[in-house]
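Preliminary data (for renewal application), magnesium ion complex.
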Amino acid sequence: MKLSPANYAAIALTVAGAIVMSALNWSGRPVSVATVGSMLVVGVTLGSIYAVSASGLVVVYTTTGVFNFAQGAMGMYWAFVYWELRFNRNWPAPIAIGLVVLVMAPLGGVVLDRLVMRRLRGTPLVLQLMVTVGLMLGFMGLAATQWKGDRGRNAQPFFGRSGGFELLGVNVTWHRFTTICVAVLLAVLLRLLLHRSRIGVAMRAVVDSRSLTSLTGANPEIISGLAWALGSSLAAVAGILIAPESGLVVELLTLVVVDAFAAAAVGRLQSLPLTFLGAMVLGIGQQFMRSFLDFPGGFSNADRALPTILLFVVVLALPQAKLHVRGTASAASARIRRVTPLSDAALGGLALIVVVVSWSGGLVPFVDEWTGTGVNRGVTMMITAIIMLSLVPLTGWAGQVNFAPLAFAGFGAVMFLKVAGDSGQAWGLLMAALLTAPVGALMALPAVRLQGLYLALASMAFARGFELLFFTQSSVIDSGAGERIASLHFAGWQLDGRGRGYLIFLTVVFAAGVVGLIALKRSRYGRRWMAIHDSEAAAATLGISLVETKVIVFGISAAIAGFGGALFGIQQATLNPSQFTLLLGLPIVLLLVVGGVAYPAAALFGGVNTILFIVIKERLGWSWLSALEILGPGLMAVAMVVNTRGAVTDMGRAFSPLLPWRQDAREQLRLGHASSREDEIGELGLDRPFTRDHVNDLDKHLGIVDLIPATPSAESRGGL
Amino acid sequence: MTPMLELRDLRAGYGGIDVLHGIDLTIASGEVVALLGPNGAGKTTALATISGQISPSGGTVSLMGHNVNGVRPDRLARAGVCLVPEGRGVFPNLTVRENLIMSTYTGVSISSIEERAYELFPRLGDRRGQTAGTLSGGEQQMLAMSRAMTTDPALLLLDELSMGLAPMIVAELYERVGELAQKGLSILIVEQFAQAVLGVADRAVVMVNGEIRTVGAPADISRQLAEAYLGG
Ligand SMILES: Nc1ncnc2c1ncn2[C@@H]1O[C@H](COP(=O)(O)OP(=O)(O)O)[C@@H](O)[C@H]1O
Ligand SMILES: [Mg+2]
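Predicted structure:
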């Protein structure tokens, strides 16, 4: 790997930071052969666990071209299956292991390839991300459904808890010894497989070019199936080895592999030796923190946050040229974009307000009786929709993936608590939004350099970092103190966080937000966002500053999420750190994308679905639905491999031609598909001022059909 | 004698829209045919159909008298149809040696492939550990050609071998094609211009807009094409 001076500087800075942090938090515990030895032994074991998990990620990525966010969840699932056979049914260990690792997991991988993965080929990266994250939730939901959390489960270590041998004064259990051996063995065997064996080479070849692979006489379908079988098997090995250490708990097991992302990133998702190194750094580093450092109260999670910090640093600091991100950032599908006129948005907003007012007033019969939902459910729905709305400009229009909306929301809630928690004054909402915007701009920093997968990883690290290090501070959320957020004071009204007035207030806010966003989309900012979504390089040649554009869109997105978070705080009245975790944020992202991330209406769709899952679960009460709120969004996201456009797009396509003034929609329906557009745009030179002419050029480039009266040179409706 | 390849009223295209509108073409065993035509004529589409990557929407592709419509490309490749595709027909992230390993799916052993490839193209031997994507254009084309040269195919399909390469390298590559022709291999060579193939082709076919326009001796066709391009 070639490192630039900037890379070396970043590494030096990181090391210096680590040293300063260690010096500041030094516990003063004695440094002796015994303590260092014990740190190394435990650290290497931990590192081996990460190595096994991370090699699975790397192997799947190099042999299938897909970064499998579900790798950890798959491992978790197979660990549960193993537990079921080994401990619940008392099968002998070798048979249970053999069956799970060599038969069931590979079969599962093949099925996954058939049903899901092969449909992901050639789809935009955003879809691949969402589908694999959806799979992650799907597996988690499946495991939680099959093995209910109502009783404790114990996966016994191999060869029992006692036993083992002494090394440097530490007892190395046979299980840990096995883990280390498996990690080393896998590192060697996988390297040989991928580079020396024909099938391994063929797996990598398929990722390079499917068609050329078939021309050599190899069957790419079979090879991909084998690659997924292998990946699934590796997940199973990792899960079975980790379960006795982490505990047989759905979330914990899944998150171990999320932690291993950092090690895989050190290997830049390609190199197994570097991944192994990264895993060891992670394991030993974590154990070093536990052995020799003491962190003050709120930072007691610092050791657990190390993988997140490392991931963030690595993604930012390592050279990326070689990190060939596969798949295209945006589907260069032939289309004409229509910018919704403000009048349409306002009309939709009004309609929504009317519906909600009449529903909350009990004017819509039956709904309440059947759903048994009070107004409070409606409140949750609208708040979720508002938080989802924050992703529409960011992900839908500017194409920036963000898995951390709940971190922003949580930040906003905390800010509201601080500035207006006692009084509940409405201006506190605006303050919360304003204060959250800079946090979004902070997140834009990595986004300036990163795209696609790496941005997704960075945002996950960001969310997890907030979860472990920020919300846990007692100065941020003092769960013990029982701070309460007052109900909202707005224009002389006092709106209870669970009442009808609050719901109507939220609906008006949401509708206003939609109209505001549509107005933004029609502005030159909105066009710049779409331009960087289409092609950052092309946007730059049009004179668009990527830094400024990304900082603004991240800031706006964070402000909306922060606003939504503050509203959430008012509903909840009390805050606690577990409300804003990475995992809880994922369904929000997924349900929005399922609806169609580029459309504000999808936020409403997502909010409705969030509630729907809860209501269905409650009304039906069937025990197999117990994990519906994660299983549902997960499966819906996975189903996007069939309908990639998002649900509201189809609804809109079916509905809009019915509106008398939508002549264009009828025409488009008649023409079938929109006409294609030019991919190339003219050289306009860098750093020019962004004039009206640029806007027109952009419109042509993006194929926007706009109803803004156009200057004569800007006739862009030629496409129809 | 049954021809090596026979196309009868072949129609094929993308997404339900035909690009080839009824092609008739026969290549006898041991014959070398040049398929010429302007950009967008459908030459690549024809090769993709013959090699099984696209299923015909009408007509037939027959190899040695067997109808092979709808047979998967990997099966055809193992049966002896070798297509060297347009552009660079190599795996850019695999090393030279790993690229050669992929050729063993035809059933030839890696030792024999390596031996012959490095003998034919010594420059590849010097770069066996290098990733193919970092090779020069000419070296990549040699690597792509070495699959054809080392796996003893029955029918060789070459798509614009000369595209973007220096004349010296083109000459070297066509020298190798000539050797294969000498051995009695049936070859279909696609090029936009006739010059490169004049020395090796027995017959030339001109395709325009998905239809065969002219068939004739390479020299005559070359003259006609030159006139057409100059006249047009
Ligand atoms: N993958 C594809 N999808 C749709 N149309 C294609 C595709 N590839 C080629 N075409 C169209 O088919 C026609 C013939 O292309 P091609 O066979 O590549 O021509 P040639 O090789 O003679 O230059 C062209 O009009 C081209 O636009
Ligand atoms: Mg071509």
